[in-house]
Amino acid sequence: MARQNYARELTAALFFPFALTAFEGSIISVLVKIAFEGSVERDVLNRAVSLLAVIPALANISSFVWVRLSHGKDKVRFLRRLQLGVAGVVFLMGLAPRNGTGLWLLVAGVLVARGCWAGIATIRSTIWHANYPAGARARITGRFAAVQVTLIALLGGALGNAMDADERAFRVMFPLGAAVALIGWWIWGGIRVRGHARLLFDEVNGNEREMPSFNPAAMVRVLAADRRYAVFMGLQFLLGIGNITSMAVLALILRERFETDYSWSIRVATSIPMLMMPLAIPFWAKLLDRTHIVHFRAIHSWLFVAALACLASAAYTGVFWIMIPFAVLKGVAFGGGVLGWTLGHLDFAPPGKASNYMGVHVTLTGVRGIIAWLAGESLYDATFDPARPGTAAVVPLCCLVLTILGAVGFVLMSRWYRRGTPVGRPEGGTEASPPARVTD
User: Which CA distances in Å does 216 have to 61, 222, 410?
Assistant: First the structure.
């Protein structure tokens, strides 16, 4: 069954990127920033652009809703309904007019599509946990991610070239992408979940207090019961908010500091990073399969630090070529990030609670998205002065500081783990019990 599921899911991964490209934050934010210039006031446009950039993180706050709604229900069937919703929204996005109303219709469309995708990611994590063995899970899911990001990079580049040739190109490419994605939706209908009946029985008959809940208190209960996971989430918050905030202003910096067109903006923001990810994913997957997520983050986080250092340098000096190593390092870092983000919670989650832990994780990612949008765009507009273009570096420098703090925290937590120092009492264990899958 595992091989059949793997083959079907890998094949389906060839088709969904045609729709995902339309609401990839770094692509849609660039497209909107350039396409709507002159049609919408700058302050309103910048606020919408930064929101579009962080919606992939912001939409994750809906995770508890999806986990609750899918509780005790057929996982594949529920996931396919969300996939169908994504395709429908992307089709409608191609109809948005280029004015103030169309701007906010696009924002709403991306928010709905990303909200559905957050549910897909959460439920898919449970399916992966059931279908693939822990020792190979990162390698297997890494292949799915490699296919997806490579296609988004290529499709994003094609979209940028098409928009430079004709700014109406998205009206054809978005509906076409939605139609192609339906092939992936059809293929997912053949995927089965190993031990599905037992999984649904455990969900329905489990402890009511442990059921996924709309109530934020459910998230607090998970963190209070597993303080190791709480510390990990705190450090992830620092690291993540630096990264997400930088993404909130990247399209603004590219356009207002460097005056780039569609093609170069999408290359730096999306195509180069995503083409680097498949090259980096096998290395990160091998590392993650051999060690605990805490040790993984203690190494991996410094790639984000290096990337943001390049972004801050480029924004301050105005030397555009520094954006190329930024894009390369960002891609290498995201290659590990997509694995750690998707699978890291499984190193903490007790049996039967993977969805609860993933729900906490993606909900906190949504909270980071809200903060990044409000703080990042506001700070950028308050500090950027076209007469002193070096002020574009203020936000990237703040992001760099936050990311360094997160990376240092992961190094310290990794040392605590190796020394056997308790960070809290994990559920079902003792203070001295080691984390799962740790190898020195």
Answer: 11, 10, 26
Query: What's the token pair of residue 127?
Result: 């399916």
Ramachandran angles phi, psi of 385, nearest 5°: -125, 115
Q: How many residues does the chain have?
A: 440
**Could you tell me the CA-to-CA distances from 411 to 28, 104, 348, 415 in Å, in that order?**
35, 42, 18, 6
The encoded tokens of residue 241 equal 């908010």
- b/e per residue, 354-382, with b = 16+ CB within 10 A? bbbbbbbbbbbbbbbbebbbbebbebbbe
Spatial distance between the Cα atoms of 272 and 375, rounded to a whole number of angstroms: 27
Interval 270-317: pLDDT, tens: 999 999 988 998 899 889 888 889 999 999 999 999 999 999 999 999
Residue 82 has pLDDT above 90, yes or no: yes
- pLDDT tens digits, 336-350: 998 888 788 888 888
- Structural domains of the chain, with CATH: 2-419 (1.20.1250.20)
Q: Which class for 104: exposed (0-12), middle (13-18), buried (19 or more C-beta within 10 A)?
A: middle
Helix (H, G, I), strand (E, B) or coil at 12: helix
Integer Cα distance of 402 and 376 in angstroms? 13
pTM (2 d.p.)? 0.84
Closest by Cα among 135, 77, 70, 192 to 343: 135
| C-beta of residue 214 within 8 angstroms of C-beta of residue 65 | yes
Q: What angle do CA 155, 9, 247 make, to 5 degrees?
A: 40
CA dihedral 99, 102, 108, 112 (to 10 degrees): -150
**CA dist., res. 137 & res. 139, Å (int):** 6
Q: How far apart are CA 86 and CA 107, in angstroms?
A: 14
Question: How far, rounded to the nearest angstrom, does the alpha carbon of residue 347 sit from its chain's CA centroid?
Answer: 19
Q: Compute CA distances 431 → 231, 423, 426, whole Å.
A: 14, 8, 7
Helix spans in 39-99 (H): 42-58, 63-69, 75-93
pLDDT at 39 over 60: yes
Q: How far is Cα 403 from Cα 423, in angstroms, rounded to an integer?
A: 21
Query: Is pLDDT of 198 > 90?
Result: no
Coil, helix or strand for 28?
Answer: helix
At residue 37, the 3 state secondary structure works out as strand
| Residues 57 and 244 sit within 8 Å (Cβ to Cβ) | yes
